[in-house]
């Protein structure tokens, strides 16, 4: 499912303590539908980072970020921080994310997007009531990508009896989940942000290696071995250029959702690795 989890910051103050804040990106589910519906402008991760930087520095008086961490789209945004503000961030942690959205990832997102926008009640974004047909179709088109094939083979979609069968899982978890938590135009805005992700467009004219190689902050990259959105191969390619980062693969069959708190075993693994990373000098 689309990430509903915010990016978390740990701020380093002059006193020996750290304050944690969480932020959501523009068009996340906690906000009302985008102003003026389908005419809401495209939003980039860079736009989000600049807006958050203003809040942190001008409203909260933060001078230095000890660490930024994010999952999924939040993970992609975490990559942007040490590129956009290289002297502001000391560490960054990417959980199931990437510095650039791959062609395969972009193509996957075109599926649920088409299911939503082609529905009879989407009305080119001018809907007056919730486009239930479109959002339900979006959820079903999206659902198979969130977990691994092995996860489905083991019927983990039953969630220890929460759902009686696969179709109940799809209806109650995916259709209902998107209906209850998302606006259709929000989804379109978020997909554009996701598809356009590429830190190398900020200052390096598309040279990803140069952009990543210039990052001074320490990084922890945590892909899941079965993630279909952000496979570990993408992270391995990024590690060729990152000078001060380490890669640890989450050994899970939960696919992308391994990074989103979906099961206790993966949560325990992530907490352990992140804790060790943050305690390093």
Topology:
Blueprint: E1 7-12, E2 18-23, H1 45-59, E3 65-71, H2 73-84, E4 91-95, H3 103-117, H4 132-143, H5 149-153, H6 166-181, H7 184-195, H8 208-213, E5 218-222, H9 232-239, E6 245-247, H10 264-279
Parallel strand pairs: 3-4, 4-5, 5-6
Antiparallel strand pairs: 1-2, 1-3
How would you describe this protein?
There is one protein chain. With 281 residues, the protein is of the alpha/beta class. 42% of the residues lie in helices and 11% in strands. It contains ten helices and six strands. The chain has a six-stranded mixed beta sheet with strand order 2-1-3-4-5-6, sandwiched between helices. Helix 2 links the parallel strand 3 and strand 4. Helix 3 packs antiparallel against helix 4 (132-143). The longest helix has 16 residues, at 166-181. It is globular, with a radius of gyration of 19 Å. The model is unreliable at 11-15 (pLDDT under 50).
Compact summary:
The protein has 281 residues and is of the alpha/beta class. The chain has ten helices and six strands.
Features of the shown structure:
alpha/beta; 6-stranded mixed beta sheet; 281 residues; globular
Distance between the termini: 35 Å
- Mean pLDDT across the residues is 91
* SSE string, helices as H and strands as E: EEHEHEHHHHHHEHEH
The amount of helix comes to: 40-55%
Strand content: 5-15%
Q: Care to count the β-strands?
A: 6
Biggest β-sheet strands, sense, barrel? 6 strands, mixed
